[in-house]
Amino acid sequence: MTADTSRRWHPDTALVHGGTLRSPFGETSEALFLTQGYVYESAEQAEARFLNLEPGYQYSRFSNPTVTMFEERMALMEGAEVARATATGMAAVTAAMLSQLSAGDHVVAAKALFGSCRYIVEDLCPRFGIACTLVDGRDLAAWKAAVRPQTKVFFLESPTNPTLEVVDIEAVAEIAHAAGARLVVDNVFATPIWQKPLTLGADVVVYSATKHIDGQGRCLGGVVLCSKEFLDKHLQVFIRQTGPSLSPFNAWVLLKGLETLSLRVERQTTSAGAVAAALKTHPLVTRVIYPGDPDHPQADIIARQMARGSTMVAFEVAGCKAAAFATANALEIIRISNNLGDAKSLITHPTTTTHQRLTEDARQELGINPGLLRLSVGLEYPDDLVADLTQALDRAAARIAAE
């Protein structure tokens, strides 16, 4: 197979065959190269490898054949020129941001971010002389107003964690480029199946591969997708020298996950729509947020930039934290966990877990209320999930009424 041939494949085919490197043994499954280093036929060859005059592997902190297969398969699916894998999703975010920033630069980011992502822009960057401004990602005027002469990066996630707000990626990309800045998009909640930020104008896309890409709760991983120019000027040397490397074993697991990604995400999305519709009918539920709903506040943007909704549903229950805890504790199929994108349905209480480090004012501004629950819909039969949520909500309502 050639690179030109694989670029013509449908994404579903690329998810199975893209980037495959076979050893002389001709294995069907991708080979797992559990090695730290590589040997050379001569000292001259080693010198040429380190001078980048000869292609080949030097050290698995820099690159590894199994990791290369994962990177190339991700690039094919995303439509990116190149990809670089990292040990975790947060390593991907950190590398994508810090590799291109220096003291004196300025970042504009949406307020609605995963807690660790907000830490990077709000706490870590300023420690190194990189200023940041947080804006309402839905407000295009706010993005424009935040631009400074020193602005180098815009950063957002869409849909957002956990309230599933949607940001107009194409419009924000235009504002960023007019200011001479790059747009970095965290695309985890949309998945690469339903949203392609690079086609909308984003310059860099990041994923926590721990989520849907693995999809079965087995290992950690991350990936940055970008142009070859960005890789050569910024990302490659940062990853090589700082070492947020993905292990070959995890890369192999993620390759196996990619083979079924499309099937899993399609089933999970269909089930999430059914679950969201059922939640709307329960008297204890005061709010349901799902990107596949026609009544979503940004439904017009979703129709333009997402092929379908998400595997994620957010809903709020009356009675605040006590009712949310009672609901989660009464579930029998759905498990309490802060992970997402798994084959198993998982629920979490963002106020006390993923976004607990934010101030109360910051959470209220983002709509992260004590009664909010974030649900990652898995591969279980959808009617069973609806029944589980219904009985849990019924029990929570009875408990609240009795107190």
Keywords:
7-stranded mixed beta sheet; 403 residues; Aspartate Aminotransferase, domain 1; 12 strands; Aspartate Aminotransferase, domain 2; globular; alpha/beta
Describe this structure in words.
This protein is 42% helix and 14% strand. With 403 residues, it is of the alpha/beta class. It starts with a helix and ends with a helix. It is globular, with a radius of gyration of 22 Å. α9 links the parallel β5 and β6. It is built from 15 helices and twelve strands. The strands form two sheets. It has a seven-stranded mixed beta sheet, sandwiched between helices. The protein has two domains: 255 residues, Aspartate Aminotransferase, domain 2, CATH 3.40.640.10; 141 residues, Aspartate Aminotransferase, domain 1, CATH 3.90.1150.10.
Summarize the structure.
With 403 residues, this protein is α/β, with parallel strands linked by helices.
CATH architecture of the largest domain: 3-Layer(aba) Sandwich
Structural class computed from helices and strand pairing: alpha/beta
As residue ranges, the low-confidence spans are: none
Strand content: 5-15%
CATH superfamily of the largest domain: Type I PLP-dependent aspartate aminotransferase-like (Major domain)
Q: Distance N terminus to C terminus?
A: 66 Å
Overall form: globular
The largest sheet, given as strand count, sense and whether it forms a barrel, is:
7 strands, mixed
Number of strands: 12
- What would CATH call the class of the largest domain? Alpha Beta
| Rg, Cα atoms, Å | 22 Å
Strand numbers in spatial order across the main sheet = 1-7-6-5-4-2-3
